[in-house]
Give the backbone structure.
Amino acid sequence: MSSATPIDLGSVGSLWRYPVKSMMGEQLSAAAVLERGLLGDRAYALVDSSDGKIASAKNPGKWPSLFAFRATFLKPSGGRAQVPPVRITLPDGTIVTSEQHDLNQVLSKALHRQVTLAVTERGQVASVQSSGPASPTAKAEEYWPEMEGLDHRDPVTDFALPTGTFFDCATVHLLTNTTLNRLRDFYPQGRFEVPRFRPNIVASTEEHGVIPMKRRNLITLSILSCFIVALVGCNARPDLQSERNLKTRHEEPGPSLLSFVDMHTYALVLGDPTTRTKAMIDLKTLPGWPGPAPEHTLLLPDGKKVLVTYMASATEPVGIAVIKINSINWAAGTADVQVVKNLETDKAGSRSTFPPVTQTSPDQYINKKVDDDWSRPVFAQLHGPTLLPHSRFAYFTMWTDDRIVAVDVEADKLLASQRFGNASNHLHGVYFNDSGTLGLGVGYFYDESNLTVFRPNRQTGALELLGEIHLGTADRYAPFIHNAFWLDERFAIAGTMQFGPTSLTPVQASIIGPSIWLVDTRTMKTSKIIGTAKDVDDPGVLRSASWITVAGNKLFVAEEDSLDASYANDGFVSVFDFSNREHPKFIKRLRPGRELPADFSVAHSLSTLVDEKSVVVESYTSSYVLKIDTGTLAVSEIANSKEGFKMPHGAWIAGRKN
């Protein structure tokens, strides 16, 4: 190996692992490479009970629906020997784990064939739930289509898997974006997406052109100061003796990095949510800061750059400041940062375009004083920062009108704003699935019940409007949506905030109160899975469902008291067992004076750590940033008013889920 000459390809765009063979997998921020590939990759497989062969999508006639299943580990993969339990999401949304006793029965029913789940450990293949003898080898089947030039034509043949593994051939699969782009050139009407190829490593090679791939080439992918060396080619020697940490431009930094701003004191805060240490930057004195109040943050996955939006006023513009993070001194609570670009989108005095709205029912309060109403700001505001996976683009929405603003985060450059009329009016962000193939824009205003479906172009950043999905019907609907959370490539969930009708509500229509909805982007249909609670002890959503996230097999709902006349009297975080996405089970409501601080109010947003062990909730009214343990539901404080915080807002965790 020492005689091989490394080839500089560019950078690692993304990492993927597939815990169960032939099922969809999970995107990673970092991974270890061992002699048998990425740690945890293809660690599990299904075995056909009738013939003992491994279930493989290479025989689609026998296993037509395997790609509709998704597998993720319940906890981070540990050492070489111990394989962690796995969570499997069935095509209908049911979730099972390798720890439950009826796993094989559930999987068999879903696949219409008797199967058992097997695992590879210490070079042996064994059943997860039986004490039968282990074996070092396994077999699978492959279908050969009727095509010229193939070794076989039309039959199904058996092939042996490499000893002690569930791999078909090589232990690491590398795919370049150059390959995908070339395929798109050859067949423009086709859809060549990363998940179809199930790679472990997607290399970004735009600047290097076509790479000649030869058997047993050594490829060096240089990212910052880290690299990966991988053998390419079938039957390559598994002689990578040492573990190497794969780090990508979509990497979670260490420590995990949290960002938020204090809108009142004009502070930018960088924190480690695990240790709860913080570094403060005074934006008022930071050279290059444009001047207006900060509002949202978007921290890039490598933790080297943060985008901070600022709000317009009669005398100040609206836009995005790009801030480079050079270093953080956690002991001193300081950071060396610099504004590298100011991306101004609108001049001072740019006004919002919200339609007039008045109160028509006691069920829905509307503040008569527009200047004092957060839900109808007078001047332009950018909201809803998101990142498009497998691309260089970040997105914001001009909540106050119909524009979607994209930023090339590598060039620090604004793209031309995109407008889709009513379909993009008053959106709070466009939220993308993990593969970056679909996005959901959410209507964040009174009587807006729409989820706008987009198809993004990951090469150009352009969005294509596919249609709109509404929560409910024309006569009865659930409006005012703050975010959407993707469960997989097809399904997402959304929560709503509005309680009752307004002057914008059609005469014959009625409003469904705060609730949670399951969204099917394939059928463009929705179903309500959690309704409105009657009181604090009633299962359901009591206050406005401001933000939702799923972590550790639990659904967390940030409930904010912001759309009624009382305003900021309280705030809750409701927790549901989400093992069955169609029928969540209420666990408890975290409330002020019990699990939450006594003076806590308005649970505004949630951010999930990559390992899903914690979620961070932020309250701009009670000056708290809190961390909730997803296992025990224990609450700890990251920031509070005693430390001088007044209005924390716009929390973001580098590499966070969704």
Residues 207-255 have pLDDT under 50 and may be disordered. Residues 604 and 619 are 5 Å apart (CA to CA).
